[in-house]
Amino acid sequence: MKKIYLFIILMSLYSCNTQTKSNNSNDPELKLEELGITLSTPSSPVANYVNTVLTGNLLYISGKGPLQDNGEYIKGKVGEDLTIEEGYYAARVTAINLISTLKASLGDLSKVKRIIRVTGMVNSSSDFTEHPSVVNGCSDLLVEVFGERGKHTRAAVGMNSLPSNIAVEIDMIVEVEL
């Protein structure tokens, strides 16, 4: 009899835990917390442009680079100075900066209806051809954080150079609920 009660209690706890997780799976801010990601204050534009433009229900986010918590950019050409894995990491750091900009603009990440478009530019050597593998660092994190709403169209292209020799620059278009 005790085993049956114990089984029922354990199943109830499991059921509650599963329901809580499924309810939280739609909350991008909780997902960031689960991933151990802390958003930063977005960097200011370095020229005559703005970080975001909202028109209708579309939010356009200017290109961001892999600015790390220590204030340093990940720099270098992928395929020459950096490996694909290091480029992937740079794109992931850039995704965190894009999400930080998104949060600063919207105030609440649950207002994201869908990530529409990501354009990833990879600073790469002339013979490098694995640009999609690098930009996956951004795409993978967006899907981790936003789930189905994070799946997007994308371009992943190589560049001869990027500003200040940063490894990647990525911009984004997001559909939002106002």
Instruction: Show unreliable segments.
Output: 1-23
Compute the CA-based radius of gyration. Answer: 19 Å
Level-1 CATH class name: Alpha Beta
Q: CA-to-CA gap between the ends?
A: 54 Å
Count up the domains: 1
Strand count, sense and barrel status of the largest sheet are:
5 strands, mixed
What would you call the shape? globular
Mean pLDDT: 90
CATH topology: 60s Ribosomal Protein L30, Chain: A
State the CATH architecture.
Answer: 2-Layer Sandwich
N-to-C order of helices and strands: HHEEHEHEE
Q: How much helix is in the residues?
A: 25-40%
Strand content: 15-25%
Number of strands: 5
User: Could you give the order of strands across the largest sheet?
Assistant: 1-2-5-3-4
Structural commentary:
With 178 residues, this protein is an alpha+beta fold. The chain has a single domain, classed as RutC-like (60s Ribosomal Protein L30, Chain: A, 2-Layer Sandwich), CATH 3.30.1330.40. The chain contains 4 helices and 5 strands. It has helices at residues 2-24, 28-34, 84-106, 131-146; strands at 52-55, 58-64, 112-123, 153-159, 168-176. Strands 1-2-5-3-4 form a 5-stranded mixed β-sheet. A hairpin with a 2-residue loop joins strand 1 (52-55) and strand 2 (58-64). Helix 3 (84-106) packs parallel to helix 4 (131-146). The protein starts with a helix and ends with a strand.
